[in-house]
Amino acid sequence: MKSQKYPTRRSYKTRAKQYLVKRHTILVQRFINKLQAEVRRLQDSLEDSIVWSLQNQFSKDVRSTIKSVRKSQVGVTVMAQEDKLTKVLESLVNGSETLKWGYAELQCLLTESCEDLHALQEEV
Fold first, then answer.
1. Structural domain count, the chain
2. pTM greater than 0.90
């Protein structure tokens, strides 16, 4: 008579553990992939912010130039044109301040994402 081998309770537990480890690894890898995509997106946003920051510096320089022209020029038409330019530049400066806040927020998000990514990579 042949003896049939039945799976033992231990082999079921071992298989269950192996399955859970594989499943956990897959989930962690998916999360890492998402974090890497988020890091890339944040880096792109950061680069865009740097461009905006450079444009902001340009607008500050233009505003300064207009103020110096205003001081040196006299005349009603020149003053009216300068007022229009000043309003435009003020809106640029306001946009710049908003950009600075967004830039700082992006820096924080990028730092957090990088830390999360490194922690997960160490875990795997």
1. 1
2. no
